[in-house]
Amino acid sequence: MFLANHRTELIQRVTRVMPIVDELLAQHKLNYQTYARIRRAPTNQEQMTELYKALDEGEYDNTAFYSALRKYEPHLFCYLGKDLTENKLKV
């Protein structure tokens, strides 16, 4: 749910895409063809878009992506979690 709800923010804000992708490859969650396609993308945003495409296509489960994202971009969870709390207070 978190990955789907924050897709746009994550695509725009994740800066350490390749460490996440490297971890998914090492865990055999991505095939090398997808890894190469992501690596060729020129910007972090395009790399994240490619990573989400692989997720959408069912190439890997979102649990591995979520875990790697939390490991390499913990500040985003703090930021987005705070955002969620503030939004709930406004409702």
Automatic annotation (TrEMBL):
It comes from the Eukaryota. Keywords: Cytoplasm, Immunity, Inflammatory response, Innate immunity. It is found in: Cytoplasm, Cytosol. Residues 1-84 form the CARD domain. Pfam families: CARD (PF00619). One of its GO terms (cellular component) is cytosol. One of its GO terms (biological process) is innate immune response. Gene3D superfamilies: Death Domain, Fas (1.10.533.10). The keyword Isomerase does not apply. This is NACHT, LRR and PYD domains-containing protein 1a. It comes from Anabarilius grahami.
